[in-house]
Amino acid sequence: MEEGKETKGKLTTEPKIERTSEEERDRLSELPDFVLLHIMNFIYTKDALRTCILSKRWKDLWKHLTTLSFYQSSLFNERRVVNFNKFVSQVLSCRDGSISLINVRLDIFESIGSQLLNRIMKYAVLHNVQQLTMYIPFYYGKISTYLDPIIFSCQSLTYLELHNISCWPPLELPKSLQLPALKTLRLSRVLFTATDNVCAEPFTTCNLLNTLVLNDCFLHNDAKILFISNSNLSSLKLNNLKIRDTFQHKVVLSTPNLSSLTVCIFGASSLSIQPLSSTCNLSCLEEGTIDIATDISHPVLIGWLQVFTNVKILTLSYETLKLILKDLSNLATMGSQPLCFVRLESLKFVTNRFRVISDEEVNKAVEYLLQNSPLIRVLLSKKLYHGSLLNYLGGFLFNLDEYF
Protein backbone atom coordinates (compact mmCIF):
# COMPACT_ATOMS: atom_id res chain seq x y z
CA MET A 1 0.00 0.00 0.00
CA GLU A 2 1.35 3.44 -0.93
CA GLU A 3 1.73 5.70 2.08
CA GLY A 4 -0.59 8.71 2.17
CA LYS A 5 -3.46 7.04 0.21
CA GLU A 6 -6.95 6.26 1.46
CA THR A 7 -7.75 2.50 1.55
CA LYS A 8 -10.96 0.69 2.32
CA GLY A 9 -11.77 1.27 6.01
CA LYS A 10 -8.43 2.93 6.73
CA LEU A 11 -6.91 6.40 6.27
CA THR A 12 -3.17 6.58 6.28
CA THR A 13 -1.13 9.66 7.29
CA GLU A 14 0.43 11.92 4.72
CA PRO A 15 4.11 11.32 4.10
CA LYS A 16 6.52 13.72 5.81
CA ILE A 17 7.78 16.37 3.44
CA GLU A 18 11.45 16.96 3.68
CA ARG A 19 12.43 20.57 3.06
CA THR A 20 15.55 21.36 1.16
CA SER A 21 18.19 23.63 2.60
CA GLU A 22 17.09 26.25 0.06
CA GLU A 23 13.54 26.25 1.44
CA GLU A 24 14.71 26.46 5.07
CA ARG A 25 16.77 29.60 4.51
CA ASP A 26 15.82 32.68 6.54
CA ARG A 27 15.55 35.04 3.60
CA LEU A 28 14.49 38.00 5.77
CA SER A 29 17.61 37.84 7.92
CA GLU A 30 19.74 37.60 4.79
CA LEU A 31 18.72 41.10 3.78
CA PRO A 32 21.30 43.81 4.46
CA ASP A 33 20.89 45.91 7.58
CA PHE A 34 19.86 49.07 5.74
CA VAL A 35 16.94 47.22 4.09
CA LEU A 36 15.77 45.74 7.40
CA LEU A 37 16.01 49.15 9.06
CA HIS A 38 14.06 50.71 6.23
CA ILE A 39 11.24 48.20 6.86
CA MET A 40 11.40 48.69 10.64
CA ASN A 41 11.06 52.46 10.26
CA PHE A 42 7.49 51.95 9.02
CA ILE A 43 6.26 50.30 12.23
CA TYR A 44 5.83 51.49 15.82
CA THR A 45 9.09 51.58 17.75
CA LYS A 46 7.69 49.13 20.30
CA ASP A 47 7.21 46.52 17.58
CA ALA A 48 10.60 47.27 16.06
CA LEU A 49 12.28 46.75 19.41
CA ARG A 50 10.65 43.33 19.80
CA THR A 51 12.79 42.03 16.93
CA CYS A 52 15.79 42.02 19.25
CA ILE A 53 14.80 38.54 20.51
CA LEU A 54 14.99 36.93 17.06
CA SER A 55 18.74 36.33 17.00
CA LYS A 56 22.08 37.90 17.86
CA ARG A 57 22.05 39.62 14.48
CA TRP A 58 18.78 41.40 15.42
CA LYS A 59 19.70 42.20 19.03
CA ASP A 60 20.99 45.73 18.49
CA LEU A 61 19.60 46.45 15.03
CA TRP A 62 16.71 48.60 16.32
CA LYS A 63 19.20 50.98 17.95
CA HIS A 64 20.02 52.30 14.47
CA LEU A 65 16.44 53.36 13.64
CA THR A 66 16.04 56.79 12.04
CA THR A 67 12.31 56.89 12.86
CA LEU A 68 10.90 56.82 16.38
CA SER A 69 7.12 56.29 16.55
CA PHE A 70 5.45 56.08 19.96
CA TYR A 71 1.78 55.22 20.36
CA GLN A 72 -0.19 55.29 23.61
CA SER A 73 -3.73 53.92 23.49
CA SER A 74 -6.57 55.70 25.29
CA LEU A 75 -7.44 52.35 26.91
CA PHE A 76 -4.99 52.37 29.76
CA ASN A 77 -4.58 52.42 33.52
CA GLU A 78 -2.00 54.13 35.70
CA ARG A 79 0.35 51.17 35.52
CA ARG A 80 0.30 51.21 31.73
CA VAL A 81 1.13 54.90 31.72
CA VAL A 82 4.13 54.29 33.98
CA ASN A 83 5.29 51.43 31.75
CA PHE A 84 4.85 53.52 28.60
CA ASN A 85 6.87 56.41 30.03
CA LYS A 86 9.56 53.99 31.19
CA PHE A 87 9.70 52.38 27.75
CA VAL A 88 10.14 55.73 25.99
CA SER A 89 12.92 56.70 28.40
CA GLN A 90 14.74 53.42 27.80
CA VAL A 91 14.54 53.84 24.02
CA LEU A 92 16.07 57.31 24.23
CA SER A 93 18.80 56.04 26.53
CA CYS A 94 19.71 52.90 24.55
CA ARG A 95 19.41 54.11 20.97
CA ASP A 96 22.67 54.78 19.11
CA GLY A 97 23.11 58.51 19.65
CA SER A 98 25.56 58.90 16.77
CA ILE A 99 22.76 58.41 14.22
CA SER A 100 20.59 61.34 13.14
CA LEU A 101 16.80 61.15 13.21
CA ILE A 102 14.62 61.62 10.15
CA ASN A 103 11.18 61.25 11.69
CA VAL A 104 9.64 61.36 15.18
CA ARG A 105 5.93 60.72 15.75
CA LEU A 106 3.99 60.83 19.03
CA ASP A 107 0.39 59.63 19.25
CA ILE A 108 -0.50 60.22 22.90
CA PHE A 109 -4.19 60.00 23.73
CA GLU A 110 -4.07 60.40 27.49
CA SER A 111 -1.13 61.52 29.61
CA ILE A 112 2.61 61.92 29.32
CA GLY A 113 4.71 63.88 31.78
CA SER A 114 5.96 67.31 30.72
CA GLN A 115 9.49 66.36 31.72
CA LEU A 116 9.51 63.30 29.45
CA LEU A 117 7.83 65.20 26.61
CA ASN A 118 10.45 67.92 26.70
CA ARG A 119 13.17 65.27 26.89
CA ILE A 120 11.84 63.81 23.63
CA MET A 121 11.86 67.29 22.05
CA LYS A 122 15.46 67.92 23.10
CA TYR A 123 16.56 64.49 21.93
CA ALA A 124 14.91 65.07 18.53
CA VAL A 125 16.54 68.47 18.06
CA LEU A 126 19.98 67.29 19.16
CA HIS A 127 19.75 64.43 16.66
CA ASN A 128 18.82 66.68 13.72
CA VAL A 129 15.22 65.55 13.33
CA GLN A 130 13.68 66.45 9.97
CA GLN A 131 10.01 65.54 10.47
CA LEU A 132 8.05 65.82 13.71
CA THR A 133 4.38 64.85 14.18
CA MET A 134 2.62 65.12 17.55
CA TYR A 135 -0.94 64.33 18.59
CA ILE A 136 -0.95 65.17 22.30
CA PRO A 137 -3.56 66.38 24.84
CA PHE A 138 -2.33 69.42 26.78
CA TYR A 139 -4.30 69.43 30.02
CA TYR A 140 -3.92 71.76 32.96
CA GLY A 141 -2.17 69.87 35.73
CA LYS A 142 -1.10 66.99 33.47
CA ILE A 143 0.89 68.44 30.60
CA SER A 144 2.12 71.99 30.56
CA THR A 145 0.57 74.22 27.91
CA TYR A 146 4.12 75.18 26.94
CA LEU A 147 6.60 73.11 24.97
CA ASP A 148 10.32 73.46 25.41
CA PRO A 149 11.14 76.36 23.04
CA ILE A 150 14.07 74.39 21.66
CA ILE A 151 11.73 72.64 19.22
CA PHE A 152 10.68 76.00 17.71
CA SER A 153 14.27 76.90 16.85
CA CYS A 154 15.29 73.57 15.34
CA GLN A 155 17.61 74.17 12.38
CA SER A 156 16.99 70.78 10.71
CA LEU A 157 13.18 70.56 10.90
CA THR A 158 11.48 70.57 7.48
CA TYR A 159 8.03 69.21 8.48
CA LEU A 160 6.08 69.91 11.67
CA GLU A 161 2.62 68.77 12.71
CA LEU A 162 1.52 69.82 16.17
CA HIS A 163 -2.02 68.84 17.17
CA ASN A 164 -3.37 69.60 20.62
CA ILE A 165 -6.15 67.00 20.88
CA SER A 166 -7.61 68.39 24.12
CA CYS A 167 -10.50 70.84 23.79
CA TRP A 168 -8.96 73.34 26.21
CA PRO A 169 -6.59 75.04 26.84
CA PRO A 170 -4.75 75.83 23.60
CA LEU A 171 -1.01 75.28 23.46
CA GLU A 172 0.82 78.59 23.63
CA LEU A 173 3.48 79.10 20.95
CA PRO A 174 6.47 81.45 21.00
CA LYS A 175 5.98 84.84 19.40
CA SER A 176 8.21 83.83 16.51
CA LEU A 177 9.05 80.41 15.05
CA GLN A 178 12.76 80.23 14.24
CA LEU A 179 12.59 77.30 11.82
CA PRO A 180 14.74 78.21 8.81
CA ALA A 181 14.40 74.81 7.03
CA LEU A 182 10.66 74.33 7.63
CA LYS A 183 8.59 73.70 4.50
CA THR A 184 5.30 72.31 5.88
CA LEU A 185 3.51 73.38 9.08
CA ARG A 186 0.20 72.05 10.42
CA LEU A 187 -1.13 73.37 13.74
CA SER A 188 -4.28 72.56 15.73
CA ARG A 189 -5.58 74.30 18.88
CA VAL A 190 -2.59 76.53 19.48
CA LEU A 191 -2.41 80.10 20.78
CA PHE A 192 -0.57 82.90 18.98
CA THR A 193 0.80 85.79 21.03
CA ALA A 194 1.60 89.32 19.92
CA THR A 195 5.05 90.82 19.47
CA ASP A 196 5.79 94.32 20.78
CA ASN A 197 2.68 95.69 19.08
CA VAL A 198 -0.81 94.17 18.82
CA CYS A 199 0.16 92.00 15.88
CA ALA A 200 1.04 88.29 16.05
CA GLU A 201 3.58 87.42 13.33
CA PRO A 202 4.72 83.83 14.01
CA PHE A 203 5.67 82.77 10.46
CA THR A 204 7.75 85.65 9.11
CA THR A 205 11.11 84.01 9.82
CA CYS A 206 10.19 80.63 8.26
CA ASN A 207 11.76 81.57 4.94
CA LEU A 208 11.21 78.20 3.20
CA LEU A 209 7.64 77.65 4.41
CA ASN A 210 5.53 76.40 1.51
CA THR A 211 2.42 74.87 3.11
CA LEU A 212 0.54 76.16 6.18
CA VAL A 213 -2.60 74.66 7.75
CA LEU A 214 -4.22 76.21 10.85
CA ASN A 215 -7.04 74.36 12.62
CA ASP A 216 -9.00 75.82 15.58
CA CYS A 217 -6.26 78.27 16.46
CA PHE A 218 -6.56 81.26 18.81
CA LEU A 219 -5.20 84.76 19.30
CA HIS A 220 -3.99 85.77 22.75
CA ASN A 221 -5.86 88.62 24.45
CA ASP A 222 -2.98 91.01 23.80
CA ALA A 223 -3.13 90.43 20.02
CA LYS A 224 -5.65 91.97 17.64
CA ILE A 225 -4.18 90.89 14.28
CA LEU A 226 -2.88 87.56 13.05
CA PHE A 227 -0.43 88.62 10.36
CA ILE A 228 0.44 85.73 8.04
CA SER A 229 3.47 87.10 6.28
CA ASN A 230 5.65 84.88 4.14
CA SER A 231 6.88 85.49 0.60
CA ASN A 232 7.46 81.78 -0.12
CA LEU A 233 4.09 80.43 1.04
CA SER A 234 2.07 78.82 -1.78
CA SER A 235 -0.66 76.87 0.06
CA LEU A 236 -2.72 78.16 3.00
CA LYS A 237 -5.70 76.56 4.74
CA LEU A 238 -7.55 78.29 7.58
CA ASN A 239 -10.06 76.21 9.52
CA ASN A 240 -12.12 77.66 12.37
CA LEU A 241 -9.81 80.39 13.56
CA LYS A 242 -11.07 81.51 16.98
CA ILE A 243 -11.06 85.27 17.38
CA ARG A 244 -13.79 86.60 19.58
CA ASP A 245 -14.29 90.22 18.51
CA THR A 246 -15.13 90.56 14.83
CA PHE A 247 -14.70 94.35 14.83
CA GLN A 248 -11.34 94.55 16.57
CA HIS A 249 -9.56 91.36 15.52
CA LYS A 250 -8.68 90.23 12.02
CA VAL A 251 -6.43 88.09 9.84
CA VAL A 252 -4.17 89.84 7.35
CA LEU A 253 -2.26 88.06 4.58
CA SER A 254 1.02 89.16 3.10
CA THR A 255 1.66 86.18 0.83
CA PRO A 256 2.42 87.40 -2.70
CA ASN A 257 3.17 83.91 -4.09
CA LEU A 258 0.12 82.15 -2.67
CA SER A 259 -1.42 79.76 -5.22
CA SER A 260 -4.00 77.93 -3.08
CA LEU A 261 -6.22 79.40 -0.34
CA THR A 262 -8.96 77.62 1.62
CA VAL A 263 -11.11 79.18 4.34
CA CYS A 264 -13.49 76.94 6.31
CA ILE A 265 -15.73 77.77 9.27
CA PHE A 266 -17.76 75.06 11.00
CA GLY A 267 -19.94 75.44 14.09
CA ALA A 268 -18.38 78.71 15.23
CA SER A 269 -20.21 81.64 16.74
CA SER A 270 -20.66 84.57 14.37
CA LEU A 271 -18.71 86.70 16.86
CA SER A 272 -15.66 84.48 16.47
CA ILE A 273 -15.44 84.81 12.68
CA GLN A 274 -12.80 87.33 11.73
CA PRO A 275 -12.40 89.62 8.74
CA LEU A 276 -9.83 88.45 6.21
CA SER A 277 -7.78 90.88 4.14
CA SER A 278 -4.56 90.96 2.15
CA THR A 279 -1.81 93.54 1.72
CA CYS A 280 -1.18 92.26 -1.83
CA ASN A 281 -3.51 91.32 -4.67
CA LEU A 282 -2.62 87.59 -4.61
CA SER A 283 -1.93 87.66 -8.32
CA CYS A 284 -0.63 84.06 -8.30
CA LEU A 285 -3.78 82.57 -6.78
CA GLU A 286 -4.85 79.55 -8.82
CA GLU A 287 -7.41 77.84 -6.55
CA GLY A 288 -9.61 79.16 -3.77
CA THR A 289 -12.29 77.58 -1.58
CA ILE A 290 -14.78 79.15 0.83
CA ASP A 291 -16.84 76.83 3.03
CA ILE A 292 -18.94 78.51 5.74
CA ALA A 293 -21.34 76.48 7.86
CA THR A 294 -22.45 79.28 10.18
CA ASP A 295 -23.94 82.75 9.96
CA ILE A 296 -21.62 85.72 9.39
CA SER A 297 -22.16 89.39 8.62
CA HIS A 298 -22.34 90.63 5.06
CA PRO A 299 -19.23 92.90 5.35
CA VAL A 300 -17.14 89.96 6.55
CA LEU A 301 -18.36 87.70 3.73
CA ILE A 302 -17.71 90.37 1.10
CA GLY A 303 -14.28 90.98 2.59
CA TRP A 304 -13.49 87.29 2.20
CA LEU A 305 -14.66 87.23 -1.40
CA GLN A 306 -12.60 90.31 -2.23
CA VAL A 307 -9.46 88.46 -1.15
CA PHE A 308 -10.22 85.93 -3.92
CA THR A 309 -10.77 88.42 -6.76
CA ASN A 310 -7.61 87.25 -8.60
CA VAL A 311 -8.36 83.54 -8.30
CA LYS A 312 -8.68 81.33 -11.38
CA ILE A 313 -10.78 78.52 -9.88
CA LEU A 314 -13.21 79.42 -7.10
CA THR A 315 -15.15 76.76 -5.16
CA LEU A 316 -18.09 77.68 -2.92
CA SER A 317 -19.92 75.27 -0.66
CA TYR A 318 -23.68 74.91 -0.46
CA GLU A 319 -23.66 76.70 2.90
CA THR A 320 -21.69 79.63 1.46
CA LEU A 321 -24.12 79.93 -1.43
CA LYS A 322 -27.04 80.06 1.01
CA LEU A 323 -25.33 82.89 2.92
CA ILE A 324 -24.94 84.86 -0.30
CA LEU A 325 -28.63 84.35 -1.07
CA LYS A 326 -29.58 85.46 2.42
CA ASP A 327 -27.67 88.71 1.94
CA LEU A 328 -29.22 89.24 -1.48
CA SER A 329 -32.68 89.08 0.07
CA ASN A 330 -31.85 92.44 1.64
CA LEU A 331 -32.35 95.18 -0.95
CA ALA A 332 -29.69 97.36 0.70
CA THR A 333 -27.16 94.57 0.34
CA MET A 334 -27.93 94.13 -3.35
CA GLY A 335 -26.93 97.74 -3.91
CA SER A 336 -23.39 97.16 -2.61
CA GLN A 337 -20.30 97.48 -4.79
CA PRO A 338 -20.18 94.48 -7.19
CA LEU A 339 -17.29 92.05 -6.99
CA CYS A 340 -14.92 91.66 -9.91
CA PHE A 341 -13.09 88.34 -10.37
CA VAL A 342 -10.66 89.52 -13.02
CA ARG A 343 -8.92 86.17 -13.70
CA LEU A 344 -11.77 83.77 -12.98
CA GLU A 345 -11.94 80.76 -15.29
CA SER A 346 -14.10 78.39 -13.28
CA LEU A 347 -16.75 78.78 -10.58
CA LYS A 348 -17.75 75.63 -8.70
CA PHE A 349 -20.65 75.02 -6.34
CA VAL A 350 -20.10 71.91 -4.24
CA THR A 351 -23.08 70.32 -2.51
CA ASN A 352 -24.63 66.90 -1.98
CA ARG A 353 -27.81 65.13 -2.96
CA PHE A 354 -29.48 65.85 0.38
CA ARG A 355 -29.23 69.64 0.12
CA VAL A 356 -31.44 70.84 -2.66
CA ILE A 357 -31.28 74.38 -3.95
CA SER A 358 -33.54 75.68 -6.70
CA ASP A 359 -32.43 76.82 -10.12
CA GLU A 360 -33.81 80.27 -9.37
CA GLU A 361 -31.61 80.59 -6.30
CA VAL A 362 -28.51 79.47 -8.16
CA ASN A 363 -29.27 81.88 -11.01
CA LYS A 364 -29.56 84.75 -8.57
CA ALA A 365 -26.26 83.97 -6.84
CA VAL A 366 -24.41 83.48 -10.12
CA GLU A 367 -25.74 86.74 -11.51
CA TYR A 368 -24.59 88.62 -8.43
CA LEU A 369 -21.13 87.05 -8.26
CA LEU A 370 -20.36 87.27 -11.97
CA GLN A 371 -21.98 90.52 -13.02
CA ASN A 372 -18.56 92.09 -13.50
CA SER A 373 -16.40 89.02 -14.15
CA PRO A 374 -15.15 87.39 -17.39
CA LEU A 375 -16.27 83.88 -16.39
CA ILE A 376 -15.47 80.94 -18.67
CA ARG A 377 -17.47 78.12 -17.07
CA VAL A 378 -19.66 77.15 -14.11
CA LEU A 379 -19.40 73.68 -12.61
CA LEU A 380 -22.39 72.29 -10.74
CA SER A 381 -23.59 68.91 -9.54
CA LYS A 382 -25.56 67.24 -12.32
CA LYS A 383 -27.63 65.33 -9.76
CA LEU A 384 -29.15 68.60 -8.61
CA TYR A 385 -29.11 70.94 -11.60
CA HIS A 386 -30.73 70.37 -14.95
CA GLY A 387 -31.61 72.01 -18.25
CA SER A 388 -33.15 75.26 -17.02
CA LEU A 389 -29.75 76.54 -15.94
CA LEU A 390 -28.44 76.03 -19.45
CA ASN A 391 -31.06 78.45 -20.73
CA TYR A 392 -30.03 81.10 -18.22
CA LEU A 393 -26.26 80.68 -18.63
CA GLY A 394 -26.28 80.26 -22.40
CA GLY A 395 -23.52 82.86 -22.79
CA PHE A 396 -21.11 80.83 -20.65
CA LEU A 397 -19.35 77.55 -21.32
CA PHE A 398 -21.41 75.42 -18.95
CA ASN A 399 -20.05 72.08 -17.77
CA LEU A 400 -21.89 69.67 -15.46
CA ASP A 401 -19.54 67.73 -13.23
CA GLU A 402 -20.14 64.90 -10.77
CA TYR A 403 -19.16 65.55 -7.15
CA PHE A 404 -20.26 62.31 -5.46
From TrEMBL:
Residues 25-74 form the F-box domain. This is F-box/FBD/LRR-repeat protein isoform E. It holds the Pfam family LRR_At5g56370. It comes from Glycine soja. InterPro entries: F-box-like_dom_sf (IPR036047), F-box_AtFBL13-like (IPR053781), F-box_dom (IPR001810), LRR_dom_sf (IPR032675), LRR_FXL15/At3g58940/PEG3-like (IPR055411). Residues 1-24 are annotated as: Disordered.
